[in-house]
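During the no-cost extension, the postdoctoral fellow (Dr. R.K.) reprocessed legacy sequence entries with the updated structure-token encoder. One reprocessed record is reproduced below for audit purposes.
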Amino acid sequence: MPAGDEGRRGVVLSDRQRISWLRLIRSDNVGPATFRDLINHFGSAQTAIEQLPELSRRGGAARTIRVASIEEAERELEAARRFGAVFVGIGEPDYPPALRRIDGAPPLISALGDLSLATQVSVGIVGARNASVSGAKMAARMARELGAAGYAIVSGLARGIDAAAHQASLETGTIAAMAGGLDQPYPPENLALYREICAGKGLAISEMPMRWEPRARDFPRRNRLIAGIGLGLVVIEAAQRSGSLITARRAADFGRLVFAVPGSPLDPRAMGTNGLLKDGAIVTTGSRDVIEALAPSSRLFADEAPVMEEPEREDGGAYPEPQADDRSRVVEALGPSPAEIDDIVRHTGVPAQTVYLVLLELDLAGRLHRHPGGMVSLAFDEE
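Re-encoded structure tokens follow.
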């Protein structure tokens, strides 16, 4: 039996902090990794917000960075409240503990439904939108049995395998990771299922703003949530170059166990899952395979996970501007190929804190690309 919510710990954000966190993550060029580095460097979201224009200017921004206003954050919070949703910060007790551990975890998620599911041990189930009858039946059976074993089921509300998994786990607990805002469920034909999830023993989560209509590039972000929330990922029918395989790659990157249900070599929907098996995924023909493999991980992920807090600094975040020579050495060390930050520190001889600050400047100026594993590269249009 998986562990319960022993991983619940953290510090609840004040109303002022929640507004500042929302403002910071909604400002231009601030993603999850940049948000984390800003908090670590300046001690609070509010101090980081005050520094954004100057940091982006020093990084060579062509125009003034847009900083989300207090009014914008308050409107979004109010829109979520009217919809019945709440915002949960990465350091708070109701934030999914397994998601908290991934590289680039969203600092804030909005949530609608049974919030207790956020800290329940979970398993992801994904697969083809054009699922076969047998594939949908397998997904439903796995979801029911894993739910009965105490796992919440995480999926993406898509047609086919996702919908079958959600439907079968409505009574035991299911989590829908959204590509758009919570008030923009997709696809439309699953609207009734979405309402069932949110009204019953289910939970919907998103890192996107309310009223945000999902676009193609938003679905890989959604897939990373599925991969990060679950301790393992089950893939049932997936074509080559499918979103399900993207989710599987992210799950493997996060150190999760990836399970694949084998299929006929003659079925294009099995090419992706069979390929996963060739690459080392666990052969899965029933829920028992998943339960037995995840048993050790269930306890591990219930243990304390690191949280993000705001260690306010006495100096108010008054950090010196890097010297011109330091900045030029860091920029020259960067190129179009991803590099580890520790390697940049060693190569340049610039102190680590200064390197991180220069990278923040470049990031906020739109001149830096961030890659999985904490690697960085210079934007391709730079010399």
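The chain has three domains: 15-109, 118-302, 324-378. The chain is about 45% helix and 15% strand. The remaining legacy entries will be reprocessed before the final report is submitted.
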